[in-house]
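fwd from M.: "can u put these together and see what the complex looks like"

so here's what she sent:
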Amino acid sequence: MPDPSSRRTFLAASAAAVSTAAFPWNTAAAEDSAAELISGKDERLIVLKPYPAVIETPLKLLTEHQLTPAELLFVRNNSQPKDAATISASTHRQWAISVGGAVSKTARIALNSLGSLPRTEYEMVLQCSGNGRSLFSFAAQTSGTQWGRGGMGNVKFGGVRLSAVLDHLGVEVRKSVRFVNAGGSDEPLPDKEDFLHSLPVEDVLNRSIIATTLNGKPLAAIHGGPARLITPGVFGTMQVKWLSELIFVAEESTNYNHVPRYRVPNSPIRPGTKYDFTLQNSAYNWDLKVKSVILNPNHGDALKAGENTIQGVAFNDGRVSISSVLLSFDKGQTWTRAELSQPESQYGWIRFSLKKKLSRGTHTIWSRAIDELGRTQPLDGSIAWNPRGYEWNGVEQIKVTVS
Amino acid sequence: MPDPSSRRTFLAASAAAVSTAAFPWNTAAAEDSAAELISGKDERLIVLKPYPAVIETPLKLLTEHQLTPAELLFVRNNSQPKDAATISASTHRQWAISVGGAVSKTARIALNSLGSLPRTEYEMVLQCSGNGRSLFSFAAQTSGTQWGRGGMGNVKFGGVRLSAVLDHLGVEVRKSVRFVNAGGSDEPLPDKEDFLHSLPVEDVLNRSIIATTLNGKPLAAIHGGPARLITPGVFGTMQVKWLSELIFVAEESTNYNHVPRYRVPNSPIRPGTKYDFTLQNSAYNWDLKVKSVILNPNHGDALKAGENTIQGVAFNDGRVSISSVLLSFDKGQTWTRAELSQPESQYGWIRFSLKKKLSRGTHTIWSRAIDELGRTQPLDGSIAWNPRGYEWNGVEQIKVTVS
């Protein structure tokens, strides 16, 4: 067995830059504060890109809350309506969503007509599929904004089940349908195709809601208000914002944002390999992969000798529970089970903590979540390297100094 | 988090019966020794069923050899040619395999004409998909022979790549083909359909060989000689013995032995649930699941206080390496990495060992393999419970007493 520790040490050391606010490769963004760019956002957030806004949350700010407040929640928009730069509600009061394709009749869903239908709330992890992308780059560079680990949050979305809305409208989906093309009313960037994803129809009809609230308040404009298609347990890119159309189809879309973007190869490839993404040789970013993230301490922190508490969160796609989070202080030779919080929701994250006596010197801390199906995080996350750097879920590895 | 230890203890205690030669639920078999049933087999093997032969290997006998000798190798036949009860070579010297279906021309593969083609050898795990089935039964009873853990071995198969044979014969496979129906010349039991499996054509053309040797000797008649279709990395049921026909097809077969037999549900179901298996709602037993098995000591063993060595083997489907095997002596609170042998082959098993000082009393020993993709064994293996008890890969859990 090759000993991964030397490479790991390098990776962990390099990750130092990631968990601080200084992103040398995003100097253009350093000028703007999140609070100036998006009305209502916390000024401590890390701006990776000003427009369309890409903003991540420093990990320690995620420690304090089970539900991530809107002012702390990360932002990742491919394109962004002009009036959306606020965590306040959207001002579009007559919003409607068109329904078409292989259905018994076309229809319009007027948001203000949904009041009579039962509402559903999901506490769930919202995570950009590019979250952690910068960690791949120590195996080989990936394209796209170099996210640290803070492109995630745990929130509560509320709305009405899409299946209930279709029933209410008398719209039946034909048997040939395998996907739903969900599109938003964001304006595409110049020369870019409109943002659209094909979502698997079975999951959508089982789980998806047309969400209109976030943490009990009207859904913030910057996060897709007034209406966002929310499916718990899946990556953020598939939670289409400013939802304006749903087209039921037999075949997956070839929209540029659905392929080659937001896809991972079907089988592992060597880091650095070019890959010509097709619908057949790759998968869209869908189910969240099992993951743990240490929120406190952060990589590079200086701690005091004695008992310290390691805190973090863990989650998966919600199909089964997280069964344990194991921590290692000796690069994987031995692992200790952390305390887990009671799950609040099958789709939300659980918090883990472990009290550990740390002596003076340098310590590495690794964390690894395992779920009931025996799915866990690879020790070397670059086994899942892909050209666009999606779905990072390597074992969390940080280094701290103790004095 | 529910503490699984009480249930686990029960499971481990119940497994005592499994790892000894006494199978109370197979009393009919207790009369025959493996050596009497199958000429050349070791008399220490455990006979689960005399005809067609189902015989497992006591785990300790697997400890001594990297390659499992033919006399120790488990046997599981659904039906069995009358002259096959021997580990000597088959006496059929004019054997041929017919090729048909969606191909450019039908053909016959005469084994004695293959001498000019390059030979390939695979060291690989051979494992019945029912191996470990009895462990499911402590969640809810499963049908089929109640295997302990010894329905597996690590052997070397040699032969000629099927793709090379087809090239040699000038047979081209049509683009519409998705499966190969592989059938053997075993005689079906009364009122049973002939044994046949549909194998995914891509894997078959990439990996499968027509095997004619086992550990360098002519392939034993009881193990499928003179010709067996061998695909490394997959369950034994798909390694069709006494291979006599290969039919290339667009659609998966509905042969009784392919569905509902030898299938697992697509998603976890509650133990005890009935399941109406179809091609759509289930998967055939194909890729081996990541697994570790403690070979020595065995469950129920009495050890001496002081340093003891825990030994076992670990494997997966060969797509990536096993990255670690972790052992726990405190029911999962802490885990220690075992020493691993150098891999001999991507498809073979690796051996693990850990020296551990054990004090007087009762000890539980758990083992868990993890591979580079982050695939591991579920702590509670019954999460994968299925009515026919296939593909058990729960965390290995045994109990020993130390005096």
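replying to her w this: Chain A touches chain B at residues 1, 267-268, 290, 319-320, 323-324, 326, 332-337, 340, 342, 370, 372-380, 383-384, 393 (CB under 8 Å).
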